Amino acid sequence: MKLNSIRFKASILYTSILCIILVLFSGVLFSITRHILYRDVDEELQIKAAEIVNILKSYEKLKQTESRHQHLINKLLGVEDRARLIIDDLWRSDMQALNLKSDYINILNVRGQPIIKSQNFNEEITALFRNKFPLSLNYAVFKNLKNSKYRLRAINMPFSFGNQHLLVIQIGTPLDSVIRILNKLMYFIGAGILFILGLTSFLGSFFARRILKPVLNVTNIVDDISHTDLNLRIPEMEVDEEMKHLISSCNAMIERLEKSFEHVNEFSSHVAHELKTPLAIIRGEVELALSETRDVDEYQRVLNVSLEEIDRLIRIIKDLLLLARLDYNPDVFQFENINLKAFLEEIHEYSSILAEQKGLASELKIPESAHYIDGDKIHLRRLFLNLINNAVKFTPTGGKISITLAIKENRAEIVVSDTGAGIFREDLEAIFDKFFRSHSHGHKAEPGSGLGLSIARSIARAHKGQITVQSRPGQGSAFTVSLPVA
User: Fold this and answer.
1) CB distance 475 to 443 below 8 Å
2) How far apart are CA 476 and CA 175, in angstroms?
3) Per the domain annotation, does 281 fall within a domain?
4) Do residues 143 and 133 touch, judged by C-beta distance below 8 A?
5) Residue 9: what pLDDT?
């Protein structure tokens, strides 16, 4: 498994999240268990302390004649006469019932002086209690005591004895059993976490591989697709909705690429053809001129023809560069607020000159009120001049060219119409394609680059507008440019 793969990252993510959850849960479980164990130990210590106090008080009743508690305790523990032997037997019996063999017991007065202590309460235990467990004369206190040898849980509980004398009982019990339980619990928790994480990592990797298998299949299919077989598509699979969406998107992308390659191939062939024709003419004229000695006029004619074809090449190259900039570099546009009335009057003035030279009438219909658009005046002028040049080119003498402005739903619709030859219906769909030339009804098209209407459409789209055409052969054409009003 690769470290930078989605499968590895997904497995690590799932495992890390589960690890955090398990550690938190185990920490809570360990804390609760520890609290319960220590609470049970504290309750047991408190019961033991209370029972010892009750035993001492019961012996006090048997010796009501004794007034001093020290003397009473000495008598209770003594072996001088039969009464003390009986009391000693009772003491042992009660003590054995409390199971105090492993406990450390110490009874002190209010000054901290020991009165009675168990046999195992040695000097080291005494120092441990004295240094780390100060006396509490108000209420019972629990505390952990430990040194290099002992780990105890201790209680310090004050009680009254005899004639309201205040004593303190201290009991310490080893925590060995509690520590063993907690260590075992910690061991099982650690082993359980490692086992669960290992199992989760394996299952996560397995399921991630199953989930990502369709992605790998799609990748393998896409890898097999090259520019020569873009007609291939990824087959639909019984997969999750996300994968279906991915497959659909990939197929749509491949379809767009196929159309782009077809467009590039078609465009390249058109460019080659458009550039080849003038070059072939120049080559033919030059070869003809060099085939034999000719007079000056013939050489001049050859040079003029070559110059015309070179100018045509230059126009084609300029138009191609302009079209590329319009389609792929929107920064070429410098938008400004344009008064449509003044702008169209300027365009009409130019069209009138062209129309007059060919014997055509020119008409301008615009509202009196001022309307504005945001646009690049230079490129918009090129758009409309292309339309007007085409209208003049395909309209016979005696015809008419019209420019009309109408405002509809916050859009300015500028119509450039003519009464010329018109366009065949089958050519209307392709009229805006690059290098397309329409053979108008009853009219032979004048030579051109075939890029004028493509450039016009690109300019209109850059202005968030559109350009459409309506035409009938023999009745003329009407090009409508729709632009948003500012």
Assistant:
1) no
2) 108
3) yes
4) yes
5) 77
CA triplet 27, 40, 91: central angle to 5 degrees?
Answer: 155
Which CATH number goes with the domain that contains 450?
3.30.565.10
Instruction: Note whether residue 209 is domain-resident.
Output: no
Report DSSP letters for 249-304, one per residue: HHHHHHHHHHHHHHHHHHHHHHHHHHHHHHHHHHHHHHHHHHHS---HHHHHHHHH
Which of 328, 346, 361 delimits the end of a domain?
328
- Residue 355: Cβ within 10 Å count: 22
Q: Is the pTM of this model over 0.90?
A: no
Residue 206 included in any domain: no
Let me know if residue 364 belongs to a domain: yes
The pLDDT of residue 214: 79
How does DSSP classify residue 331?
G
Which stretches in the chain have pLDDT values below 50? 65-70, 72-73, 75-83, 441-442, 445
Q: For residue 338, give the nearest of 330, 347, 328 by alpha carbon.
A: 347
Distance CA(481)–CA(384), nearest Å, equals 9
Structure tokens at 250: 């990939």
Q: Assess whether 26 and 76 both reside in one domain.
A: yes
pLDDT value at residue 475: 87
Q: Domain span at residue 121?
A: 6-181
Structure tokens at 387: 């339309």
